[in-house]
Design a protein that fits this description.
The complex is a heterodimer of chains A (352) and B (304). Chain A is built from 14 helices and two strands, in the order H-H-H-H-H-H-H-E-H-H-H-E-H-H-H-H. Chain A is mainly alpha-helical. Chain A has a domain of 234 residues. Chain A has a two-stranded antiparallel ribbon. Chain B contains eleven helices and two strands. In chain B, helix 1 runs antiparallel to helix 8, helix 2 crosses helix 9 and helix 10 runs antiparallel to helix 11. In chain B, 75% of the residues lie in helices and 3% in strands. Chain B is mainly alpha-helical. Classes of the chains: A mainly alpha (352), B mainly alpha (304). Chains A and B meet through helix 7, helix 11 and helix 13 of A and helix 4, helix 9 and helix 11 of B.
């Protein structure tokens, strides 16, 4: 039993199972809006978890992750716009309003975008990497702002989404369950990756890239694959978000959105399976609660973020570990695939 | 021809404004190793303080002093309370903490002064135009901005290359640990450098007030362009900041002026304007990506 409680995966399964009851319980508790809020949390959890793959596992500080979130959203929006007008996109790609078409398309577009941006950005490191990923995201942002054909600044509305395998996506509970299911699949994939040889190489890159290179590992290739997988996950989340909001706008890829995704990962706990999910939940719920109290909620949220960064190292997962009084196990004692708290890792000397 | 000259001058004017911000940012980056996203907030604080002082007293001198004092004071408090704790942290923590500061400052200004943009008049003495070339008139105020920017660049050069403090700053940028080991009060040096950077950001904010409207969010707009400048110029290099700032200012202004016109020849007017504005906005980021791919450490790397 003790071992079961220690295993993060058991907590994830329990949490997802409990969450599945939200659409049943919410009407009973007379708060149907909770389902919408929970859907947002689940979608952001997928996006934050995808960022965690590069940020937490590989230590790559990408400041442009919202770009793929937005690309996924626009893939859905643009296909829908062409479905509405009847004209094929670029003259040969027919539009669609079915999620079975638009979701894979969004993931593909996100993956291609991440492959191009990652292939170029990963030639740099450190501060330059942060800035070049930000620069590419800003380029995409301004590109979509300027595309008047797809709404420009005002964005695109998506009205009639086709049912998927008999599921009506206009129904809040159905959409929530769909998103929750995809989150479960995504987290399973992330867990498999973290425990695979590939995941160990990523951890090695974070702890000491030169050592990995000295071992004969082509780190560039591993980092690029991780970058592409992360981009695909964010694009999937973006596509779901557009289905939830029935709207897509360049705001989805604004640099502040990239910042929010980073905050979710940090808030929850870098490099953990459950952390990004908790982080997404806490941040979305915090914004929802604060904006209900005051219009100037950012005035309170800003200092809260500051305090989390300054005093809660390792995020909420780290705080939970500390509260539980568990001493950080020595690095050798960590079971395969499970990451020790960041503080327990032997830090490499920081250069510069 | 006259139009091109005017656009080039506008580009230089944007460039020196960016330089004032980039100089502080690149020093803070290079010496303390801190990514400070809240640098744009100091620019905003300077602009707001000057706008409020100007409307209260009507004096441009008082407005200038108020803007500089407010930005420098807020900057030193931020350094003392927050950034000091972040020097030893990784870039990720710094980005997040200063992101929190941006939310705090933006919403704080809204609480104090509301969301309405403020408009500032050009000071009496600097109104009108001056003939820069036969047939080319250019606003005196913008000429004054360019002059102030170049004077600051000269002043920084003298300060950094010819004084003892400047020597410590240069040493700090290249061999931080060694400076500390030689018994220099690094904390004091850091606070001073940060205060100087905040002062310059405030100066940029004060001078930009009469050209653009003073509004919440003005800091982030220019902040990202400033980062582009710093990265293109080479982190920690003031010379690189000047060169990068003028380059970014010129590229941005010229693209904005000419791309929509070129596009209008091949597509409808309103769509060409929108797409042109977007492509022009992308231009500086493309420039930065290209520079980084060719010279990953920028054009004038300080740690070479």
């Amino acid at each position: 039993m003790r071992n079961l409680l220690r295993d993060e995966r058991a907590w994830v399964v329990a949490l997802l199972a409990l969450a599945a009851f939200i659409p049943v319980l919410a009407p009973m508790l007379d708060s149907p809006a909770t389902v919408g809020l929970a859907t947002r949390i689940v979608i952001y959890a997928i996006a934050a978890s995808s960022l965690n793959l590069i940020l937490g596992h590989a230590g790559l500080v990408s400041f442009g992750h919202a770009a793929y979130f937005g690309l996924g959203g626009y893939a859905v929006g643009i296909l829908y716009a062409h479905y509405g007008s009847g004209e094929p996109f670029l003259g040969f790609i027919p539009g669609s309003n079915s999620l079975l078409v638009t979701l894979p398309a969004a993931i593909l577009v996100g993956g291609i975008g991440a492959a191009i941006i990652g292939a170029l950005s990963l030639r740099t490191a450190g501060v330059q990497f942060i800035m070049i990923t930000l620069a590419f995201a800003q380029m995409l942002y301004f590109l979509f702002v300027s595309l008047k054909a797809y709404g420009g600044d005002d964005g695109l509305a998506i009205r009639r989404v086709a049912p998927v395998l008999g599921m009506n996506l206009r129904d809040a509970a159905t959409l929530f369950w769909l998103c929750l299911g995809l989150l479960a699949v995504w987290l399973f994939l992330m867990d498999r990756i973290a425990r695979s040889r590939f995941g160990r190489v990523l951890a090695g890159v974070r702890q000491g890239e030169r050592r990995m290179a000295a071992l004969g590992v082509r780190t560039y290739f591993y980092k690029l694959v991780a970058f592409v997988i992360a981009g695909m996950g964010a694009a999937m989340a973006g596509a779901l978000m557009v289905n939830y909001l029935r709207f897509v706008s360049p705001d989805m890829m604004a640099w502040t959105k990239s910042g929010e995704l980073m905050i979710m990962v940090i808030l929850g706990g870098l490099g953990t399976l459950l952390g990004p999910v908790i982080g997404a939940g806490v941040l979305v719920a915090l914004e929802y609660t604060l904006s209900g109290i005051t219009e100037h909620w950012q005035f309170i949220e800003g200092p809260i973020l500051l305090l989390v960064v300054l005093f809660a190292r390792g995020g909420l997962m780290g705080a939970v570990r500390q509260l539980a009084g568990r001493r950080a196990p020595a690095p050798e004692a960590v079971p395969a695939g499970e990451l020790p708290p960041r503080d327990a890792l032997p830090e490499t000397a920081t250069h510069g | 021809m006259a139009l091109l000259l005017e656009q080039l001058l506008n580009g230089v004017q944007l460039g020196v404004t960016l330089f004032l911000l980039a100089a502080g940012l690149t020093l803070v980056f290079g010496i303390m190793g801190v990514i400070n996203l809240a640098h744009g907030s100091l620019y905003m604080v300077g602009a707001y303080a000057a706008a409020v002082a100007a409307s209260a007293t009507g004096s441009a001198i008082v407005a200038l002093l108020a803007g500089l004092a407010a930005a420098a004071a807020v900057g030193m408090v931020v350094e003392y309370v927050v950034l000091r704790r972040l020097y030893a942290r990784d870039h990720l923590d710094q980005v997040l903490a200063t992101f929190g500061l941006i939310l705090f400052f933006n919403e704080g200004i809204v609480l104090l002064l509301g969301r309405q943009p403020l408009f500032v008049n050009v000071p009496e003495a600097l109104r009108g135009t001056v003939r820069v070339l036969p047939g080319v008139d250019y606003p005196v105020y913008r000429v004054a901005i360019i002059a102030v920017g170049l004077l600051v660049a000269l002043g920084l050069y003298v300060l950094i290359q010819r004084t003892r403090v400047g020597m410590l700053v240069r040493a700090g940028a290249t061999h931080r640990e060694m400076v500390r080991a030689l018994g220099v009060d690094v904390r004091l040096l850091y606070t001073m450098v940060f205060g100087l950077g905040a002062l310059l950001a405030g100066l940029a904010g004060v001078m930009t007030g009469p050209i653009l409207s003073v509004q919440v969010g003005m800091g982030e707009q220019i902040l990202i362009q400033t980062f582009v400048v710093v990265v293109i110029g080479g982190i920690g290099s003031v010379r690189g900041a000047l060169f990068g700032a003028v380059l970014v200012g010129l590229v941005d202004t010229v693209l904005r002026a000419y791309v929509p016109g070129l596009l209008r020849q091949v597509m409808a007017g309103s769509e060409a304007d929108a797409l042109g504005a977007g492509l022009a906005s992308m231009g500086v980021y493309l420039l930065m990506a290209l520079v980084l791919l060719v010279k990953p450490r920028g054009l004038f790397p300080a740690h070479a």
